[in-house]
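The passage that follows is intended for readers who have already worked through the single-chain material. We present the inputs for a multi-component assembly, then the predicted structure in tokenized form, and finally a short commentary. You are encouraged to pause after the input and sketch how you expect the pieces to fit together before reading on.
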Amino acid sequence: MNILLLGSGGREHTIAWKLNQSPRCSHLFIAPGNAGTETEGTNLAISVSDFEAIKDAVLQYEIEMVIVGPELPLVEGIYDYFQADESLKEIAVIGPGKSGAILEGSKAFAKEFMNEFNIPTAAYGEFTASTLQEGLDYIAQQTPPIVLKADGLAAGKGVLILDNILEAQNELKEMLSGKFGEASSTVVIEEFLSGIEFSVFAITDGKEYKILPVAKDYKRIGEGDTGLNTGGMGAVSPPPFVDDTLMQKVEERIIKPTIEGIGKRNMDYIGFVFFGLICVNNDPYVIEYNCRMGDPETEVVFPRIQSDVVELMMAAHEGKLNTINLEIDDRSTTTVFLVSGGYPEAYEKGKIIDGLDQTFGSLIFHAGTKLEGDQVVTNGGRVIAITSYGSDFKEALKQSYENANVIDFPKKNFRTDIGFDL
Ligand code: AMP
Ligand code: GLY
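Having made your guess, compare it with the prediction:
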């Protein structure tokens, strides 16, 4: 079948690479894609939010499956758009409807959902401009650090962790008066949880689910998890501390009640659930839900899936996930991101990337790249993800780092300590 994949990051290049291993994938289209996805199929110059242009492409290229990479089109209702259109209704859209994507689209909704279904998460309060004073009082009763979260999507910037009460109160005022626009018109204030974070993924049809390999990503720009947050500097799968006992708790206390909750609330959900978790004294808590795969986690999770992912996604679409026996590679995977100097603050684009054809023993996934003539040049902050396999994550990392030195572009930067805390 012809498949359309929406997105343009390392996550999408990885998914595209995996889709092409399936005999069921006849032709792959990627919108808008990058220089890497260009070698996996046909890039279409369509924005992920332009539903009408997506519809035209689906009809023109006789596409039967649409896989949605990023959260924005999901929260904006691409699934519902397809459902409401007679000519698109039968297409398998992999990604939840608006009623499911709100688990990522509204942090207040997610907290209320977790409370109803007794899913472990940090204690919280929810405030708007009309309850500002209650919010200030709530902060005054907390012990810092204090976690403030914009309710809506804020391009990964909507979470602030403050070390003192006065600062947190000032931030609350700023957020409620539009610091993140509409996204912070409601603010969630949360208890700070101290522990080690990890990412668990499942694919669901709203009733059944299959758990994918677990991963840990490294978000900060600096060594030892210091400095500003980024879209992700590297990842490891599996993180060794996530043992069977912890995963059993995750499944019983978090995954099962979440999927049951999705069912009980009649949310439209065919697609991936991303559980952003933290382990506190050997117990898992939910930090956040996302309604899609993670990036850079996908770059280590998908290479460990041995089963046919088109079959897996089709089974989710048809409500037959229980017929799938998911096979996972026992080996570890790591990914190391090469980023543009200056990122996540100001950086330059358009730098020529050398050495792409000289790497060995790793998978090279493109993120912020584009083709200029036949040259691959940088086109974003996070540029290339280098994924490797190994008998353990240290062996895999060694390979990723060898190739991190082979690929080069002006002002290249990367973290040399991925997995440092494992
Ligand atoms: P989120 O966008 O909700 O994933 O938050 C971004 C980051 O903030 C998370 O990856 C955590 O590192 C941190 N964070 C969020 N909520 C909490 C919390 N309740 N306690 C400690 N850290 C948190
Ligand atoms: N790696 C975190 C995310 O994709 O949101």
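Commentary: The CA atoms of residues 55 and 88 lie 8 Å apart. The longest helix spans residues 244-264. How closely did your sketch match?
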